[in-house]
Amino acid sequence: MALRTGMIIALIGMALVGYVITAAPAPGQSDHVMFGGTIGHNMVNTADTGVPVQLLPQVEKDDDGKDKILKPADANLLWKSPLGSRAYGGPIVSGGKVFVGTNNDNARNPRDITTTADGDKLPVDKGIVMCFVENDGKFLWQAVHDKLPSGQVHDWPKEGICSTPTVEGDKVYYVSNRCTVVCADVNGLANGNQGITTEKYKDATDADILWETDMMGTLNVFPHNMSACSPTIVGDKIYVVTANGVDENHANIPSPDAPSFLCLNKADGTMVWKSDLPGKNIMHGQWSNAT
């Protein structure tokens, strides 16, 4: 849940929901731009007030004493928008936009749907970060990441994007299901390609990737089951826990010398420094957030 003066953005089931608190918030006021709101990642919100106690549709008695469920509009519901079948990453609110990580089980692009031999249409399993308008829930764009070919040892099925995005200015940062650190334009490709030009997916509702650092390909990281860190930004640096861990049998550490902790230049994703601690003493996997 992301709290801000005037609005609550929450994950209810597998839908992204916006609730009115009082009036529409001023742009940028009380934005919730990262996991926990600040680099301390304290989950206690100390900025917002007037938060309604009742979020879900309320039940009251009618004239006959029977339960009557109030309409969503009567319970401060402003809008809602469906996500995939799982949604671990977010929501994040910044600059009038909402960012949330999910999977592709509610495919928004026909390109990401496959047809079986029996003629059934099924969504292709992918990692997704969706972007919506804060005030009305309008879908703007999404980052689409294919699953790793190595399967569940590195990229567990149906988990989607587990990293809660971090937004700073006009850039959104997250760790993809493919163990890459991603920096994208908050406006997507709708306003043109501002970054790299090698994106696989380039529809108007796709992400505009500015840079992407492949921790498996360049640093030999062996993510166990899923990469999940929410990036922490301090000054001109970005800090990430890499998810390096044990193999599928939980018996060996394939890459004990690969970094567990990584510091990158936020401007271009180049490495500033790395640490492989605890190396051979990794117990299982590493999915936490730097603070």
Task: Provide mean pLDDT, rounded.
Answer: 88
Strand content: 25-35%
Q: Give the strand line-up of the largest sheet.
A: 1-2-3-6
Structural class given helices, strands, pairing? mainly beta
Assign the CATH architecture: Beta Barrel
By DSSP (H or I, 4+ residues per run), the number of helices equals 1
Shape: globular
Blueprint of the fold:
Elements: E1 2-4, E2 7-12, E3 15-20, E4 59-61, E5 67-69, E6 77-82, E7 89-94, E8 97-103, E9 113-115, E10 121-123, E11 126-133, E12 139-146, E13 166-168, E14 171-175, E15 180-185, E16 209-214, H1 215-219, E17 232-234, E18 237-241, E19 261-265, E20 271-275
Antiparallel strand pairs: 1-2, 2-3, 3-6, 4-5, 7-8, 8-11, 9-10, 11-12, 13-14, 14-15, 15-16, 17-18, 18-19, 19-20
Give a summary of the structure in a few sentences.
Helices cover 2% and strands 34% of the residues. By secondary structure, the chain is an all-beta fold.
Throw out a few tags for this protein.
291 residues, mainly beta, 4-stranded antiparallel β-sheet, 20 strands, globular
Give an overview of the whole structure.
- The protein has 291 residues and is an all-beta fold.
- The protein has one domain: Lipocalin (Beta Barrel).
- The protein has one helix and 20 strands.
- The strands form six sheets. A four-stranded antiparallel sheet has the order 1-2-3-6, with no helix packed on it.
- The longest helix is centred in the last third of the chain and has 5 residues, at 215-219.
- The two termini are 19 Å apart.
- Mean pLDDT is 88; it is low at 20-27.
